[in-house]
Amino acid sequence: xxxxxxxxxxxxxxxxxxxxxxxxxxxxxxxxxxxxxxxxxxxxxxxxxxxxxxxxxxxxxxxxxxxxxxxxxxxxxxxxxxxxxxxxxxxxxxxxxxxxxxxxxxxxxxxxxxxxxxxxxxxxxxxxxxxxxxxxxxxxxxxxxxxxxxxxxxxxxxxxxxxxxxxxxxxxxxxxxxxxxxxxxxxxxxxxxxxxxxxxxxxxxxxxxxxxxxxxxxxxxxxxxxxxxxxxxxxxxxxxxxxxxxxxxxxxxxxxxxxxxxxxxxxxxxxxxxxxxxxxxxxxxxxxxxxxxxxxxxxxxxxxxxxxxxxxxxxxxxxxxxxxxxxxxxxxxxxxxxxxxxxxxxxxxxxxxxxxxxxxxxxxxxxxxxxxxxxxxxxxxxxxxxxxxxxxxxxxxxxxxxxxxxxxxxxxxxxxxxxxxxxxxxxxxxxxxxxxxxxxxxxxxxxxxxxxxxxxxxxxxxxxxxxxxxxxxxxxxxxxxxxxxxxxxxxxxxxxxxxxxxxxxxxxxxxxxxxxxxxxxxxxxxxxxxxxxxxxxxxxxxxxxxxxxxxxxxxxxxxxxxxxxxxxxxxxxxxxxxxxxxxxxxxxxxxxxxxxxxxxxxxxxxxxxxxxxxxxxxxxxxxxxxxxxxxxxxxxxxxxxxxxxxxxxxxxxxxxxxxxxxxxxxxxxxxxxxxxxxxxxxxxxxxxxxxxxxxxxxxxxxxxxxxxxxxxxxxxxxxxxxxxxxxxxxxxxxxxxxxxxxxxxxxxxxxxxxxxxxxxxxxxxxxxxxxxxxxxxxxxxxxxxxxxxxxxxxxxxxxxxxxxxxxx
Length: 808
Ligand code: H53
What we know:
Elements: H1 3-25, H2 34-63, E1 67-71, H3 81-87, H4 91-100, H5 105-110, H6 121-135, E2 140-145, E3 153-157, E4 160-164, E5 177-178, E6 184-188, E7 191-197, E8 200-206, E9 209-221, E10 228-237, H7 244-248, H8 252-264, H9 280-303, H10 312-315, E11 316-321, H11 328-339, H12 344-354, E12 355-358, E13 369-371, H13 372-378, H14 380-400, H15 405-410, E14 414-415, E15 418-420, H16 421-428, E16 431-434, H17 437-447, H18 449-454, E17 459-461, H19 468-474, H20 477-487, H21 508-533, E18 542-547, H22 556-572, E19 581-586, H23 594-611, E20 620-625, H24 630-636, E21 642-645, H25 657-663, E22 667-670, H26 676-683, E23 689-690, H27 695-704, H28 709-715, H29 717-727, H30 738-744, H31 753-772, H32 774-786, H33 793-804
Parallel strand pairs: 1-2, 1-11, 2-10, 11-12, 12-16, 16-17, 18-19, 18-21, 19-20, 21-22, 22-23
Antiparallel strand pairs: 3-4, 5-9, 6-9, 7-8, 9-10, 13-15, 14-15
Helix pairs in contact: 1-2, 1-4, 6-33, 9-11, 11-12, 11-14, 13-14, 20-21, 22-23, 22-29, 22-31
(1S)-1,5-anhydro-1-(2,5-dihydroxyphenyl)-D-glucitol is lined by residues 119-122, 125, 273-274, 322, 360-361, 366, 435, 464, 652-656, 674.
């Protein structure tokens, strides 16, 4: 855009914006509130995007383009306004126009709520995949739940997590379109009877409880292209709203109960990350978005295909994100057989061809299994179909591998009184994949080895990726500008082009600019920390950051114990030579995960002690930032020097914050786990610091024993001291972390924290040495960015497209 074009656009924008403000607020610009200024801007942007949306949908329908649908119980999309503006290439026009109008663009953006419709990695991955699909001009859509309350807001009060409801819809949400005309009915409970109608057996669902599923669509706009895909989120409502007859008969409470029971389905997101919560309401949620989504997809397909489902399996990809949407298999079978009149074999072929499944965890406690009784009662027809899928599967296995009856039956979808959702997903999908190389290997060799032997061709691996538009271009605009001026703009469309940075790997002028940007980002975070928790931190210190859900396997505890040890060292020798450090944590604990909450409490207790001790003041600080969400993440990654990725090897399927940190030039301090391994391969051993047990060693100890944490404790006085401090009152009057002590000693340290302590402490020393050589550190940092192309979600989507959905 040349300058006169820009001027014309700005004038047009300003005129439209002033009109919009009047329209949404009934006030003129000068008298409008910041909220109204935000709403007007959001509406203006939506007007532009919806016009493009309508156009592309017409094209998709006309050409019967192959469509992908991600079914996921979480979509952690983050704030959208700025991304939309970037994607329609209006950033400069809007920024300059608002400034000329005397408005505060940053404050306007702050008005947007950050929808917490996910817990962590799983939901955020879906948002990155939607962003990448749209950026690549690929028709891929999301299908999930419009939770009225997203993930709780976390406050830290007296060092402890307190949960507050997340009322993200309180001011309305400008980026969704409610489509009541596309509502569908979801049926629960009741009974099934079969009838012979015109010579064929027909199943009829009676006495069911109907719930109305109403879709809300959010546009997913591609970066600088014509594509607009859709994220469809379903809201549960009672049929015909309030039950007036009942109400009129005076049964007021009953009428209200009916309404609120219906609405409860989409009321709240379960706050568990990688953990299974076998509640009836969760099962209702899982069926709810699966049933509503599939019904609409089938009817839309028929509308463009002469009212027939022919070819559905070739034209439609239903992607099952973890096992929460595992009922896609039986539900699609139900629709194709009971509603479309197909026979079992035709319906089965179509279903398997349409479905693919990504597994995201090997933690046994996260694998979903539903009691037969619960499922049979709530979803009688679905359960019937699962039984039949299983019966046929076992029959085929017995026929193919007659000498393996015991193994065959161990693969049963239904066993021990439960329905195994991972097994259901594998049997009903033509493709199964893990999310990093190591993870996929564990799936093949351990977790799903029995299935791998039966269907080796179904197993794939696609390493996760993250959106460079969100986590580099949007969150680190200064770095974006430096990259553009140094290596041109091709990297914006193809992140592998960042390799061109190797031309600058020894360039002192580039180093200077790069360091200045990192420092400015650190100042920004330091400012946020002061504003929010009144702790002042030194932007020249190492920003050593661990932000993610709090979980034993992610081992925030290892980090915390090491901080305590470092503090002890500094107390013994206040002149200890070390680069000053700021240890930063953020992350939520599931409300019922008491051990994780104790870890938060421990970190805050250590922080309080360290930050108030004058002898260590200029050497170390510890910070726990409340309410980690996408918006806070965008401030944190660009400012990081060290990215803590220290999970017990074999436990973290992939991790994605490791990629976001790397893209912003942080050095990974990590175990050989998940995608850390691929990061290490990409950057080479001199640009990462790894430590600790390998996954093979962890498996070996878990299988054959041989690790006794008490031995480590007895041999290492550093550990003894730290462990005693957990329970002797050092961390504050009345503060006692016995549960943590017991887990590490009495229960033999199930996540190998003490076992890896020494290696971690050595690795931390290496970080210190490296950082103190400024040139080496900057070189490492730039090398990390240069190699981050492989961790763009654009690459992941291209892999899915080629290997799994087979889209040209
Ligand atoms: O999914 C991420 C992985 C990460 C894994 C995470 C995840 C959840 O956030 C929730 C449930 C689940 O089964 C897995 O823990 O390692 O990077 C995206 O694949």
